[in-house]
């Protein structure tokens, strides 16, 4: 009886086991969708803004690639404002002025020097500032060029003639006096700067614009002070003589005027009338 009952249940058990295996296979291959979850949010994609702000810098960490957010980890560099430096107290027209580099060194490097050409370039021409004239001498003052200068020379000659070179002067010189000149004579004087590369030019520019930088040469005339002094003394003596003569004439006229006044006040005796009267009585 029991065996016959098992035989009846055997087909049912076989069918139930096959159905459970097929249900398990189907559930593993095709999972049911989970309601309430947005599938697009599971695997987010970078937007256009994220692509523009992130350059896609990738680092391999533990065998996997991870995106590095440039915006979140960028380094901020503090910008420092540059220190404003003033110009050094350098005067290129002052006599015996030290170089600007020396002034800058004494200032601890806290000032700026004007840009100058290096020693490998021929210096520009100095500019003659003024010429002080005398009877037999002159003093010429100039300003230094924007060049490296090892020294200066002053050239002098009669107008229209050749120029003679004077002694070499130190680079700090801005003035030089020349003696033993002829009085009342025209001269041409020039100042040149020199260094290892050569010597500056001395030719004058024609039609120099008004207000432009003075050139390196000047044409001057010495004075004649002795003649002027003699003329002055002569004019002073003549003026004194005229004053004396004028005073004498004025004194003479004043005396004559006083004499006439006295005669009119006292009356003039008529000697002719008295003589006739005496004769008639006789």
Structural descriptors:
282 residues; 6 helices; alpha+beta
How does the helix and strand content classify structurally? alpha+beta
> What number is the mean pLDDT?
74
Order of helices and strands: HHEEHEHEEEEEEEEEEHH
Count of DSSP-assigned helices: 6
Strand content: 15-25%
**What is the alpha-carbon Rg in Å?**
59 Å
Major beta sheet summary: 6 strands, antiparallel
Helix content: 25-40%
Q: Outline, from the CA principal axes?
A: elongated
Given as residue ranges, the uncertain stretches (5+ residues, pLDDT < 50) are: 20-43, 51-68
Strand elements, count: 13
Report how far apart the termini are: 244 Å
Describe this structure in words.
The chain has 6 helices and 13 strands. The protein is an alpha+beta fold. The radius of gyration is 59 Å and the shape is elongated. 35% of the residues lie in helices and 21% in strands. 8% of the residues are buried. The strands form 4 sheets. Strands 7, 8, 9, 11, 12 and 13 form a 6-stranded antiparallel beta sheet that branches. A 3-stranded antiparallel beta sheet has the order 5-6-10, with no helix packed on it. Strands 1-2 form a two-stranded antiparallel sheet.
What's the helix and strand layout?
Elements: H1 2-29, H2 48-53, E1 57-61, E2 64-68, H3 70-73, E3 86-87, H4 100-106, E4 111-112, E5 127-133, E6 138-143, E7 151-158, E8 164-165, E9 169-170, E10 175-178, E11 186-195, E12 198-199, E13 217-221, H5 225-266, H6 271-281
Parallel strand pairs: 3-4
Antiparallel strand pairs: 1-2, 5-6, 6-10, 7-8, 7-9, 7-11, 11-12, 11-13
